[in-house]
């Protein structure tokens, strides 16, 4: 990755009308309905943006959408990238750097995750307060990282406290139950064994997924305030573990997403 590549990506998007977005949003697996809320939208397919990776997962449509939500300019990633698709950490986080260069001041991230904490149920939303990186690498571990920011990035509070407090207050006001917890990010694409779920619980994870952490690390590298939520799509009880049903996971994500959209829209309105 070079600054020249970033500049080419950004120039292409500005020429399409992506002007000064305030908020960047990354949509997780099965969580694409938010784009219906975007007014006056402009789309750029990933395969047309210089140096952008291509989305390969069937639930991810692979485009960047610019427009207005709650009277604020947003740029939304409909389709994100994962290690399990064969991408590396620089590919996965390249769009975050592009959105930052376009001008975003805040980043919202969503994902679908499995509930490790057995007090959490599928169909609920978890506000991520902290994370555990089990992906075996870092998006900052490359030779010329110092050209883009500090090599050593503080991660003592990776998720913005102010936005977390605001989203909690919105949830209370709107009558939406949200849990709060720690997200563990693994490589995938296979789901976990019973022993791995037990390990994750011992480590202190409340939910597990295959994304988000690389984007959060890069957002912190860019000093970009971030808020992230998990839509809990399955319950990971090692003593009563049922075979995974991907179709059901996507359906639960779709049913729960309207609550997430409501939280994000109100937060956009407030900040």
What would your notes on this structure say?
This protein is an alpha/beta fold. The chain has one domain: Rossmann fold (3-Layer(aba) Sandwich). Helix content is 31%, strand content 24%. The chain has a 5-stranded mixed barrel with strand order 5-8-7-6-9. α3 (161-174) links the parallel β6 (125-133) and β7 (178-185). The longest helix has 25 residues, at 246-270. The radius of gyration is 18 Å and the shape is globular. The mean pLDDT is 94.
In short:
By secondary structure, the protein is an alpha/beta fold.
Radius of gyration: 18 Å
CATH topology term: Rossmann fold
Strand line-up across the major sheet: 5-8-7-6-9
Percent of residues in helices = 25-40%
Distance between the termini: 32 Å
Uncertain segments are none
Q: How much of the polypeptide forms β-strand, as a percent range? A: 15-25%
Mean pLDDT: 94
Give the topology string: H per helix, E per strand.
HEEEEHEEHEHEHEH
Category by helix and strand content: alpha/beta
Shape: globular
Number of domains: 1
The named CATH superfamily: Nucleoside phosphorylase domain
CATH class: Alpha Beta
Q: What is the helix tally?
A: 6
The count of DSSP E runs of length 2 or more, i.e. the number of strands, is 9
The biggest beta sheet is recorded as: 5 strands, mixed, barrel
CATH A-level architecture: 3-Layer(aba) Sandwich
């Amino acid at each position: 990755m070079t600054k020249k590549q970033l500049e080419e990506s950004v120039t292409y998007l500005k020429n399409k009308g992506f002007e000064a977005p305030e908020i960047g949003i990354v949509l997780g697996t099965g969580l694409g309905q938010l784009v219906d809320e975007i007014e006056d939208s402009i789309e750029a397919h990933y395969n047309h943006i210089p140096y952008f990776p291509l989305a390969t997962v069937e639930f991810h449509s692979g485009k960047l959408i610019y427009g207005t939500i709650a009277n604020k300019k947003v740029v939304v990633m409909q389709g994100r990238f994962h290690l399990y698709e064969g991408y590396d950490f620089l590919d996965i986080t390249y769009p975050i750097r592009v959105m930052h260069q376009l001008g975003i001041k805040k980043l919202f991230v969503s994902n679908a995750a499995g509930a490790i904490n057995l007090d959490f149920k599928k169909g609920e939303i978890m506000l991520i307060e902290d994370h555990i990186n089990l992906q075996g690498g870092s998006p900052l571990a490359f030779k010329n990282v110092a050209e883009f920011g500090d090599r050593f990035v503080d991660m003592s509070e990776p998720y913005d406290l102010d936005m977390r407090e605001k989203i909690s207050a919105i949830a209370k006001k709107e009558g939406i139950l949200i849990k709060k917890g720690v997200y563990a990010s693994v490589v995938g694409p296979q789901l976990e064994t019973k022993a791995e779920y037990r390990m994750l619980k011992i480590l202190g994870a409340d939910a597990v997924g295959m994304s988000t952490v690389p984007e959060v690390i890069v957002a912190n590298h860019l000093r970009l305030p971030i808020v992230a939520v998990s839509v809990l799509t399955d319950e990971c009880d090692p003593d009563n573990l049922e075979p995974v049903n991907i179709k059901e996971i996507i359906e639960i994500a779709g049913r729960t997403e309207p609550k997430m959209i409501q939280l994000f829209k109100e937060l956009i309105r407030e900040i």
